[in-house]
Every structure is written in C-alpha cells, then in structure tokens.
Amino acid sequence: MSKEILEFSVLVDEKFDLKFNWADGFWGAALKFFGK
User: Fold this and answer.
1) Which of 5, 12, 28, 31 keeps 20 to 30 A from 20, CA to CA?
2) What is the DSSP letter of 2?
3) Where are the beta strands (DSSP E) in the chain?
4) pLDDT at position 7, please?
C-alpha cells in the first residue's frame, strides 16, 4: 500500500471510531434513561 492510502485509511478509522464511540455512549445513556 502506498503511504497516502495508509494515512487516509488511518484518518477514516479514527473518525469512524469517534462517531461509533459517540453513538455508543448516546445509546447507552438512552437505554439507562428508558430502563428506569
């Protein structure tokens, strides 16, 4: 793989992880709220 593609894939992975963690935290809070 070329260096540019590797750097791009790492950048996308980081953005995806941030969005996934945010969504996971949001749904975790929603489930706790509705679980009461």
Assistant:
1) 5
2) -
3) none
4) 92
First to last CA, the chain: 50
Q: How many helices (H) and strands (E) does the chain have?
A: 1, 0
**CA pair distance 16, 21, nearest whole angstrom:** 8
Closest CA to 29 of 21, 5, 6, 3: 21
Q: What is the pLDDT of residues 23-32, one digit of tens each?
A: 888 888 888 8
* Residue type at 31 in one-letter notation: L
Q: Which single residue is written with the structure tokens 């992880």?
A: 17
Both tokens of residue 36?
């009461």
